[in-house]
Amino acid sequence: MKQPQYTLDINIFFKRIGLLVFIIYLLTCGLIISGRFVSNAEVIPTYSTYTVSEGDTLWGIATAMNTDYDINKVVYDIKTVNNMSDGYINAGQIIKIPEY
Fold it and tell me: pTM above 0.70?
């Protein structure tokens, strides 16, 4: 029984390889360009306000927020947005609380 012989047309092979390389190039360029647009997007943080009650601490306020973030990070963020050098707060003080 005679086995079929497969011949490879070298021109068709290189055309297919060239097309594949071109498609990969376009996809890569698209990912790079879209990444630039996303990374340049401005993120505008949102805040709520909180009036400090007697006995409140930043740690207690951060814990009450029930976020998935580390409490230390939340306390740091509260201090940062309120320009606090230390963690002292007073009853009646209105502070900004970052919304995550």
Answer: no
